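Case study 2.
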Amino acid sequence: MAEDADRTEDIAEEEEQPELDEVVKEEKTKDTDRIDKAPRISLKNPLGLIFNTRMLRRVVQILFFIGINAYLFAAWFGGDEVLAFWENFREVLPTLPIIAPLEGSFAVLAGTFDTLQRELTSGFFPFFTIGAMIIILTILGRSACGWICPIGTVQDFASIPNRNKVRPAPGSENELRRIKAYLFVIIGFLAAWVGVSTVLGNEEALVNVLGPFANGAFDPFNPAYIIFVEFANQNWPTGLETLWYVTQWEWFLVQFAFIIVIVVVSFWIPRWFCRWICPAGWLYGVFSRAALFSIGRNPARCTPDTCNVCEVVCPMNIRIRRFPYQHMHSPDCILCLDCRSHCPNKAIVVRFS
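Prediction:
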């Protein structure tokens, strides 16, 4: 009888203690479960599949990805009316705070950072470009990065199939973000150096030394320049008999490999190029920190101690809960509104203040 009693106590203790594997599994799936609890669009409401923020952003991204190269319509499809629309858009906003070179074969819209490089290296101070950039960023923040930038669009669509994203630790994230600041200093210095040399009339020797880094120091590793300019300038193989064209690519092989790396890594790490590498993003973040349009949180609905869905889904890996409720003044916020779409309590709001 005593032995039976001891066995009963042991069984009771084993039932009270959760197995280690279950605890580990619970910790690993905690963030995923929180996302799953977020409100999803019901099939009973098919219009919700179309009229929602995430779908709207995808549509806008695709339209601007095509519109940035709107001359493609006139050249291939004869879409003169479509081309006229984007040309009128360009009259209102000649440059946008994105990365998009105007040297592309079908380019209509240009990025502010690309334009700044060209103007500085030509010996002109870009008063108008800087003024327009500051006005846009102080009002709309970095929303153009989240809704318009073609490289951001490529990264976003590359990360859609994977729900298990990699999120570096805050310390590692902060250190990696410094890279784009260092790149901006180097690129800005080279552009100013070439510009001053151009004004003084002795730029030839410097241009010969810098080579492809002379007119735009960011161009050789600018994914927008590689896709919209370099891709069109290469002889592409049309069959096995012309496969040897690849041997003539030389430097373009490295650039092409870089584009592949951006897409592949984005599958696991959303917007990693924007977060760590893009010098234009660093510049735009300086002026968008106190933008009039921004993200805020409703303190009556937000439960930061028990919920972190907004941080889990944020493609820029921003620690949203660390910022004040009234205004999230992060220079890395691109106003993609993914946090608002996934918030289970509808605590995320867009504010104008």
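The first strand starts at residue 95 and ends at 96.
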